[in-house]
Amino acid sequence: MSAIVLEVVRQPHTEEPARSQATGRPRLVLVPTGPDAASAARTARATQPPMRLTRFGRLVVALLVAAVVSVLGVGLAGQLASATGEPRTITVRSGQTLSGIAARELPELTTSEGVVELQIANGLSTTAIHSGQQLVIPGR
Known about the structure:
By secondary structure, the chain is mainly alpha-helical. The chain is 51% helix and 6% strand. It has helices at residues 2-10, 35-47, 55-83, 98-105, 111-122, and strands at residues 88-91, 134-137. Helix 4 (98-105) packs across helix 5 (111-122).
């Protein structure tokens, strides 16, 4: 008698969706691989609603865009200001030479070309300069 009672107790009375009806073991789930995995991922993404930004998220994105635009604007304005070629004036100190000033102030030119540029900009006929003299450095 006890054997019959055990068999009755072992049989499930309710159906469980996660277990097989014949054995009572958990069912195996097939996981797609290869090309099937890609198509399964696409269908899973298609069923999900698109991501939505909250009010705070929109504010953060707007502030980040404004910060990037302002940094780029300041950088571009700085480049344009330096490229305008505004001439500037320096005062010659004791011991300075025209070639030394040309080498320091006009590094993109050779020393001889820089001296010629300084002579033309200041109306000099020679390379002689004296302490306290104002020289115009041409802008590039």
